[in-house]
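Consider this one:
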Amino acid sequence: MSFEARYRVRSKIAQTIAGMILASIGIWVLFYRQEELEVTSYSNYGILLFWAPSWLLFCLISIMVIACVLMSLKTFTGIFDRHPVIVINKEGFINRRWRRKLIPWSAVKSCQILQFRRSKYIRIDLKKMSDFPADGFMKYYVMVNWPFSGGYITFMAVDLDCTFEDMLQAMRQYIDIRNYA
């Protein structure tokens, strides 16, 4: 028996809309509020960065707009992606947010349930993380966050068509999970 979880379409649509709204606000500020950016950038009561010259504000807002558009395009593709994001079976698990290949249960060093604010997640520590490098964009995310997270693989039910309890029950069939939440 295999457990599979896919992206929830409604949350991907909401994320896409939110990203486009943020990009629209940035474009509006860049092109329709340019004079106010120039005036407020040197004043003590500016709305963005009190000390920054207007060209720096223009660059920062431009980067924000580009990032929002790219995020929206990435989440938009998740609307049509019907492949399972998480697969848990007797051989191991696949978390496509980390990598697209199977990680066997024998490679797992520890497994814990943790909670951050109101969100619970499962944190998996591998015996040798270098044997299972992250794929795609995640490899850059892991590289930047390695000092803070230690490179753990996390399982969250956010944006998925399952609950955390469903995912936890599927994992407990194959591995011992310590509860820290």
User: Anything to note?
Assistant: Residues 61 and 88 are 41 Å apart (CA to CA). The mean pLDDT is 79.
